[in-house]
Amino acid sequence: MPALLAIVSHTPSWVFVVFALLILLGLQALRPRSVGVARVFATPAVFIAWGLVSLVLAAQRAPLAPVAWVLTAIAGGSLALLTLRLDGLRVAGPARVHLPGSVLPLLRNVLIFGAKYVIAVLLALHPAARGQLLIWDMAVSGASAGYFIGWTLRFLIAYRRAAAMPLPLSGAE
Question: Which position among 39, 60, 96, 129 has the lowest Cβ density within 10 Å, counted as fewest Cβ atoms?
């Protein structure tokens, strides 16, 4: 238990802020909701930026890091493009969409964040394993950034299709 407390106490405060934000966004995604199109891109923007920053920082220390990042980004993007379904997406007004509730965003956010956090802790505790751990970090960063790039493309396709469909008439007419 003291080791766990030491790890948590040495964690920068911004990490808890990012984690709280990801949990909040994931919890909001549990319920069907109507949101602005720009807000839909908050989580993808966080993970894509985090993945790119990780790539830039690691590329300076490990020459194979970009290779791992690109390969896993392609895999993550392909996974999103091939498996993501946004069938319940509807246009709810100008620059607004209605999204169905799903547990997937919460699970995905926690899984990616948890993997990055564990790797960061291992890097701090085992500096001699830095080379191997950086490759794992690049794999997680690339896969998550690639997934969210693919997710964004899939969302834009679904949004365009939904926008082309006529809105249902209200019963007041």
Answer: 60
What pairs with residue 33 in β-bridges?
99
- Report pLDDT for 167: 57
Sheet bearing 90-93, strands edge to edge:
33-36, 96-99, 90-93
pLDDT, tens only, 142-173: 999 999 999 999 999 989 888 887 655 554 44
CA separation for the pair 118, 75 (Å, rounded): 22
What's the farthest any 2 CA atoms get from each other in the chain?
Answer: 71
Residue 75 phi/psi, 5-degree rounding, is -65, -45
Q: Residue 112: in which H helix or E strand, if any? A: helix 104-125
The model's pTM: 0.84
Q: Select from 172, 169, 167 the least CA-distant residue to 92.
A: 167
Per-residue tokens: 101: 């509730």
> How does pLDDT run across 109-132, given as a tens digit for each residue?
999 999 999 999 999 999 999 888
End-to-end CA distance of the chain: give it in Å, rounded: 65
